[in-house]
Amino acid sequence: MKKVFAGILTAAMAVSLLPAAMLTQASAADYKVAMICDSSISDGGWGAACYNAMVDAAGQMGWDYEVTDSIAQDEYYNSIVSYCMLGYNMIYAPGNQYTDAVLQAAEEYPDIAFALLNGGEGTPAQAVNGNVTSLLPNATQIGWIAGALAGLMSKSGTIAFIGGMELDTTLAKYAGYTEAAQYVAGLDGKEIKVLDPVYAGSFNDSNKGIEFAKAMMDEGADVFFGDASAVDSGARQAIDEANTAAGAISVYDIGQPSDILGQNECVIGSQVTDNSSLVRLSMEAVENGTFGGEVIYGTLQNGALSAGKLNADLVPEDVQTRYAEFIQQMIDEKFMAE
After folding, report:
1. How far apart are CA 276 and CA 290, in angstroms?
2. Rounded to the nearest 10 degrees, how much is the dihedral formed by the CA atoms of 222, 205, 91, 276?
3. What angle do the packed helices 46-61 and 275-288 form, to 10 degrees?
4. Preceding peptide of 94 cis, ω within 30°
């Protein structure tokens, strides 16, 4: 259902002349959700996973949906407002970077619901009309899921992290990745060096990912994790090329937020976030008239977070067993408890 957005604004201007009540009254089959995204929904990473989450949730709820992707930062607000003027019931913005644009639009369109994925815990309270909800997967647990695998699999003792933007959630993922990797390695008497995170300043510059991965491999990194969408795709491309040149797969990548095992030869596993469950809860709240002013959390405990399948050809059986034990410890809230 991806469509080019040109021409919508003209139609939106006409719709905006209708009374606000007409824009918000809808039967169950007439509810509509729109997503904006600064990365591509075909990136095989964050953009694709967030789009699929909306599609899955909309399918379960019987909502119509639309998306505008690959938009520049200075177009966040205009893209959101265009959908507001067309009478969409909910705007889904998948990232903390959209916070300012969401809060501005939410103030101007009090009858529309705004679901902000990775929104801050304090963001809903900033919405003067109470029509913003943060959907917040536990960033520390996301880092743990990847970090435990990285700590078990690194042979060089050096691992890497690539970010799109220096967001609070990205920093928390890096911190969790670091502490989990060092913890599991320490149990075996090993030390893990985590390179300083690098940031592309965007989520769609795959060439930056290639550049970063090459430089970090030169520093000895043999396991990568990222929070950078298409930038991560570029990194995996560089890793695959390096492994091919070396004649063996010795540098690995851990994907997120969907299970991407098989997408690249270097992928040994994935951290999986079921954002569709969070989006669906938002849609239910819209229909029930209870939306807004809260944080909906996603954790290992409620099933919104999980570890994906492991590459059995690259991850030894004993490591698979130990990793599963660590994941269970996280679920039981006993990880790093000693």
Report:
1. 19
2. -30
3. 40
4. no
Domain 8-138+275-298 has CATH 3.40.50.2300: yes
Over residues 238-271, the pLDDT tens digits come to 999 999 999 999 999 999 998 999 999 999 999 9
**Cβ distance 105 to 126 under 8 Å?**
no
Give DSSP secondary structure letters for 92-122. Answer: EEESGGGHHHHHHHHHH-TTSEEEEET--TT
Query: In the chain, which residue ranges form alpha helices assigned H by DSSP?
Result: 8-15, 20-24, 46-61, 76-85, 99-108, 123-126, 139-153, 168-187, 206-218, 230-246, 275-288, 317-331
Burial 28-46 (b: 16+ CB within 10 A, else e): eeebbbbbbbbbbbebbbb
CATH topology assigned to domain 140-273+306-331: Rossmann fold (3.40.50)
Q: Two tokens at 57?
A: 């949730």
pTM confidence score: 0.81
The per-residue pLDDT for 27 is: 53
The answer to whether the beta carbons of residues 102 and 91 sit under 8 Å apart is: yes
* C-alpha dist (Å) from residue 306 to 79, 194, 265, 327: 32, 23, 21, 8
Q: Where are the domains of the chain?
A: 8-138+275-298, 140-273+306-331
Same fold, 8-138+275-298 and 140-273+306-331: yes
pLDDT tens-digit readout, 82-111: 999 999 999 999 999 999 999 999 999 999
Strand 158-163, strand 113-117: pairing: unpaired
